[in-house]
Amino acid sequence: MDDVISGTTAAEIADSVRGLRERGMLRPGDALPPVRELAATLGVNRNTAVAAYRQLAQAGLVIARGRAGTVVAGADTTAQEGVTTDTVLRDIGSGNPDPRLIPDPTPALGRIVGRPVLYGEPVIDADLEAWSLDIARAELGRDDVRISITSGAVDAVERLLAQALMRDDAVALEDPCFLASIHTVRLGGYRAVPVPVDDEGMTVDGLRAALDAGIRAIICTPRAQNPTGASLSPARAAELRAVLADHPYVLIIEDDHFSLLSRHRYSSLIGPEHRRFALVRSVSKFLGPDMCLAVAATDPTTAERLGMRLSPGTTWVSHLLQRLAHAQLTDPSVRAQIERAGAHYAERNAAFAAALTARGILTRTADGLSLWVRMPVPAREAAAYLMRRGWLARTGDDFRLDEAAPESHHLRLTVHDLDEADAARLVDDLVAAST
Fold this sequence. Notes:
The chain has helices at residues 10-22, 35-42, 46-58, 106-112, 126-140, 153-164, 179-187, 204-212, 234-244, 284-287, 300-310, 319-329, 332-358, 379-388, 420-433, and strands at 62-64, 70-72, 90-91, 146-150, 170-175, 191-198, 201-202, 215-220, 251-255, 277-282, 294-298, 371-374, 391-392, 394-395, 410-413. The protein is globular and about 70 Å long. An 8-stranded mixed β-sheet has the order 4-11-10-9-8-5-6-7, with helices on both faces. Helix 7 (179-187) links the parallel strand 5 (170-175) and strand 6. Helix content is 40%, strand content 14%. By secondary structure, the protein is an alpha/beta fold. It folds into 3 domains: 2-72, Winged helix-like DNA-binding domain superfamily/Winged helix DNA-binding domain (Arc Repressor Mutant, subunit A, Orthogonal Bundle), CATH 1.10.10; 90-95 and 334-433, Aspartate Aminotransferase, domain 1 (Alpha-Beta Complex), CATH 3.90.1150.10; 115-330, Type I PLP-dependent aspartate aminotransferase-like (Major domain) (Aspartate Aminotransferase, domain 2, 3-Layer(aba) Sandwich), CATH 3.40.640.10. GO terms for molecular function: transaminase activity. It comes from Microbacterium istanbulense. Pfam families: Aminotran_1_2, GntR. In the C-terminal section; belongs to the class-I pyridoxal-phosphate-dependent aminotransferase family.
């Protein structure tokens, strides 16, 4: 294989491997030559070969497995969020909200019809902007906040990174990490720097190490971190803000996806003097994933650059969708229903965690739609046993940033929609899987 890979620069070598992959000469699972061997064959510096493989890994074309080498990635190597439809198994790893708890938009639809919006008019609905601005300014404690509307949180994060970064720039990600953030950073060609997460959110030492590594952006989940369910404590947030005070131009992106459903108070990394920030809140967890709308509260410069990133493509999110979101979010009955949904998720997760703990599998009650359960055995072994019992679980291996890291012992379980009988059966099967 060595003699068909060519090039003298990292870009040329990466392009050569990509071409071989496209022509079918390299197939998923094929091993690439070791870095030192490839460098010697091509007569280039070892760092050049390392850079080429890193570019390929960031583009999702290869998978680096540490001492196990580097292999060509396949189309199915990247895990995705959501329910699995082509299975007879009961999916307990989807991370979805309960559709029965999503408010019916029908009563609000009649209130949003108005004059059609034409080209050249303001792209943000004035009522939604004013409502969002009041909340963001109060929570962030600053007046220099601007509002942008995007087609969901993932869309916001992708465009926010694109307006601030160049290819191969470093981005701090929580580890374990939300799948969409892993994909966004990888496909954007950025370099992911893992920051460990504990019960109080991002660790201070982890953030310091990431800043020392030269990160230019941070993606942080202040509440209900996916997959662990951790929320930033006020004390931890204050420590992290103190660390970031010396780095005011590092872009902080907070993805507060669980906002109105959370049982925890919002604590932020964004300090009063920080220069580049974005607080992103989608409505998908409480108004439904199909709403495809997120509010991004940012500093003025980021808002201007984000607007430029929006202009070449989808210039604005439908005003009908914006009006519908505002009509529901300002409706007391809808807000009460959202509050009941948040309490339901918390109560069901707490009951399941208590049942597991009582049976010897210590499980911490956290925030969010799922539980992060540590098993005494490797997660893949537990998931295989559960599959034989009719369950489809998601292992923590999907959420690792480092492919070469030891295999995970965690399962992410979405159990809030199980009835009492099914919940009890799953507890029994988890206990059996742990032995």
